[in-house]
Design brief:
Radius of gyration: 16 Å
Distance between the termini: 21 Å
Strand content: 35-45%
Number of helices: 3
Number of domains: 1
Helix content: 10-25%
Strand order of the largest sheet: 1-2-13-12-14-10-11
Largest sheet: 7 strands, antiparallel
Number of strands: 17
Structural class: mainly beta
């Protein structure tokens, strides 16, 4: 789906990373929450899951606004409810999940993307309770790709498990949302955050279903139904 050039100026800052021949490609969208309205979306006014980025865009348009950027923002159950923490507009709608389980969400450590008056942070889930009082929004996912600059030791460098994946890190209070354009494994994805973006803490959001909506890029991915969605809204 493509939009007129007049709308592209409303988008979040977006840039395509430098690409070396033979390496996976990535798209990076940078959001400054002190200048742009970063929001989480889950259900519409009737309590039905949005499931698709274009449905969030349509709901925002009814308010006379535009969705400038959108991306899936964490793992979800069969009914599209969050597996872990979900805080929107300062209200906790799903609690922090520190239980054990199977699957990527429960791979240790998992983490939380949160925004407060100071900007955006990515922290390990165990660190969130100390920050919860100030969180305006928060979403939990897993695993952490990077913790304090180190790649998750559970990742296998030559793993054959490759998918289109998306994740996020924070630098100087800004969020860097990343989606791979080629299938990558966990280690390759984490290495991009560490070596190219120079992130210290980065969180995996999901794979296979990963989707990006961007006015700046004229893009509206539609791979699968989604649970939690994060985005920025422009007047």
């Amino acid at each position: 789906m493509r939009w007129p050039a007049s709308l592209l100026l409303l988008a979040s800052l977006a840039s395509c990373s430098a690409i070396r021949a033979g390496e996976p490609r990535f798209t990076v969208v940078t959001v400054d929450p002190l200048r742009e309205r970063l929001q989480l979306f889950l259900n519409d006014e009737q309590g039905r899951p949005y499931k698709r980025l274009e449905k969030v865009a349509a709901a925002v348009a009814k308010r006379g606004q535009r969705l400038a950027f959108g991306m899936n923002a964490g793992m979800y159950h069969a009914d599209y409810s969050p597996v872990g923490l979900f805080v929107a507009d300062g209200i906790e709608r799903s609690p922090l999940n520190l239980s054990a389980g199977e699957g990527n969400f429960f791979m240790r450590p998992n983490g939380v993307l949160l925004a407060n008056e100071a900007g955006v942070q990515v922290v390990e889930s165990s660190e969130y309770p100390a920050l919860s009082a100030t969180a305006r929004l928060a979403t939990q996912s897993g695993p952490m790709l990077l913790s304090r600059g180190a790649i998750n030791p559970l990742f296998i460098p030559d793993s054959s498990s490759r998918h289109i994946r998306n994740g996020v890190c924070a630098i100087d209070g800004k969020a860097l949302f990343v989606i791979s354009e080629d299938p990558v494994n966990f280690y390759e994805f984490a290495r991009y955050f560490r070596d190219t973006l120079k992130c210290r803490d980065a969180l995996y959001l999901d794979g296979s279903v990963s989707a990006l909506y961007s006015l700046a890029l004229g893009r509206n991915d539609s791979r699968a139904n989604l649970g939690p969605i994060i985005g920025t809204v422009a007047n």
